[in-house]
């Protein structure tokens, strides 16, 4: 049994009392720890999210460490890098796993470089091969999969989109403080005001109705909003609608937008490009409306309607409002 741990690192945005994506990465970390016979540690930077101790227990974490410091409260990346490098040097992990948030894109490669390990971004799954790791990652904007073999001590950033099995119940793991001296860190980026979005989040939505370029014009996007409202869901969009300024970027579903996992995803006038599907393929049920019977979205959809969105969506709104 190796004593070098697998370490899951969480920092930045929190959601529902947990760091964003923590459960997904803990699920991957638990699998890797089990197959490599290593203990699983979880380190959280900044204030401890409410559900961290309970979640650590559910995912078989041996030790939950918290590094807290004034400098970590504003999600400043120089302090995050310094804290994780100090933690990595102390624990000498077999691998460090992070959820690929916007912050992680700039933090993970710097931590890897300072610890002398490799970094792989866009990870989907990982397995040990002797002392090394084989990691499958999304590449070329989600069009293909790349498989890498990296040596010990890498930093692996994940964009998991598989469903997590219900964890078995277990006792919470009490957080232990892990002290790192960050007094010498000179932050080079000043966060004046963290971005904040008050509306409902696509990431947590049970029902999403998304519109694509097939809507034809910005005015027609109101049909998407009406159908979303009638179904009790949230309106999303493909990237061209965001690029053209029809809706703001908080609506974008996909590889470079939000990664969603609703029960119902209704895609209207969306072709089904791989980069869009990266943000919705974990939906339980996909319904597509498209006038092209050969559109790729129909390969993913459980139910499909071939026809003009501008004729079909008003009927769906009527039916949903009546029901
Ligand atoms: C690195 C990278 C990252 C990307 N990230 C994202 C991302 O995060 N999210 C994202 O969405 N895209 C992303 N893209 C873009 C992606 O490749 C596609 O270009 C985009 O998803 C296409 O959007 P669309 O389906 O709305 O438009 P189109 O591909 O133009 O499809 C429009 C569809 O509407 C149908 N249609 C037309 N008229 C009607 C009508 N009247 N009624 C019904 N159907 C109609 C057409 O048959 C067609 O299938 C990314 C691309 C790259 C290279």
Key terms:
five-stranded parallel β-sheet; binds flavin-adenine dinucleotide; alpha/beta; Rossmann fold; 16 strands; nine-stranded mixed β-sheet; single chain; 9 helices; elongated; 323 residues
How would you portray this structure in words?
This protein is α/β, with parallel strands linked by helices. The protein has 2 domains: 6-177, 3-Layer(aba) Sandwich (Rossmann fold); 202-322, TPP-binding domain (Rossmann fold), CATH 3.40.50.1220. Helices cover 28% and strands 25% of the residues. The protein is built from 9 helices and 16 strands. The protein has helices spanning 22-36, 52-58, 77-91, 102-115, 221-231, 239-243, 274-277, 297-300, 309-322; strands spanning 6-10, 14-15, 18-19, 40-45, 63-67, 95-99, 119-129, 132-139, 144-150, 155-158, 175-177, 207-211, 234-237, 264-268, 285-290, 303-306. It has a 9-stranded mixed beta sheet. A 5-stranded parallel beta sheet has the order 13-12-14-15-16. Strands 2-3 form a two-stranded antiparallel ribbon. Helix 3 packs across helix 4 and helix 5 packs parallel to helix 9 (309-322). The longest helix is centred in the N-terminal third of the chain and has 15 residues, at 22-36. The protein is elongated and about 60 Å long. Bound molecules: flavin-adenine dinucleotide.
**CATH second-level architecture of the largest domain:** 3-Layer(aba) Sandwich
Average pLDDT for all residues: 92
| Radius of gyration of CA atoms, rounded to a whole number | 21 Å
- How is the CATH topology of the largest domain named? Rossmann fold
Task: Specify the structural class.
Answer: alpha/beta
Gross geometry: elongated
Report the major sheet: 9 strands, mixed
Number of contiguous helices: 9
CATH superfamily of the largest domain: HUPs
Bound molecules: flavin-adenine dinucleotide
Strand order of the largest sheet: 9-8-7-10-6-1-4-5-11
**H-E string:** EEEHEHEHEHEEEEEEHEHEHEHEH
Q: Measure the end-to-end span.
A: 58 Å
Query: What is the helix content?
Result: 25-40%
Low-confidence stretches: none
The beta-strand count equals 16
Number of domains: 2
* CATH first level of the largest domain: Alpha Beta
Q: Estimate what percentage of residues fall within beta strands.
A: 25-35%
């Amino acid at each position: 049994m190796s004593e070098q741990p697998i370490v899951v690192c969480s920092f930045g945005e929190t959601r529902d009392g947990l760091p964003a994506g923590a459960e997904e990465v803990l699920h991957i970390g638990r699998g890797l720890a089990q197959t490599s016979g290593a203990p699983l540690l979880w380190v959280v930077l900044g204030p401890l999210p409410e559900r961290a101790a309970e979640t650590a227990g559910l995912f078989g974490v041996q030790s939950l460490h918290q590094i807290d410091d004034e400098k970590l409260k504003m999600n400043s990346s120089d302090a995050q890098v310094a804290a994780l490098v100090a933690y990595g040097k102390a624990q000498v992990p077999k691998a460090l796993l992070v959820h690929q948030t916007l912050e992680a894109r700039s933090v993970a490669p710097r931590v890897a470089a300072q610890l002398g390990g490799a970094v792989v971004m866009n990870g989907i799954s990982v397995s040990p091969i002797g002392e090394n790791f084989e990691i499958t990652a999304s590449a070329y904007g989600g069009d293909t999969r790349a498989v890498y073999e990296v040596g010990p001590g890498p930093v692996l950033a994940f964009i998991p989109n598989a469903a997590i099995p219900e964890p078995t119940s277990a006792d919470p793991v009490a957080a232990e403080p892990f002290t790192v001296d960050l007094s010498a860190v000179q932050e080079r980026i000043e966060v004046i005001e963290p971005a904040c979005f008050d509306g409902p989040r696509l990431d947590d939505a049970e029902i999403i109705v998304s519109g694509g370029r097939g809507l034809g014009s910005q005015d027609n996007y109101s049909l998407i909003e009406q159908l979303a409202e009638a179904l009790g869901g949230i309106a999303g969009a493909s990237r061209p609608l965001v690029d053209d300024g029809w809706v703001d970027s908080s609506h974008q579903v996909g590889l470079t937008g939000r990664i969603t996992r609703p029960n119902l995803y209704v895609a209207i006038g969306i072709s089904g490009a791989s980069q869009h599907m990266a943000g919705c393929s974990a939906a339980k049920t996909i319904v597509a409306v498209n006038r092209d019977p050969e559109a790729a979205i129909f390969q993913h959809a459980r139910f499909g309607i071939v026809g003009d969105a501008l004729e079909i969506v008003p009927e769906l709104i009527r039916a949903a409002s009546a029901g």
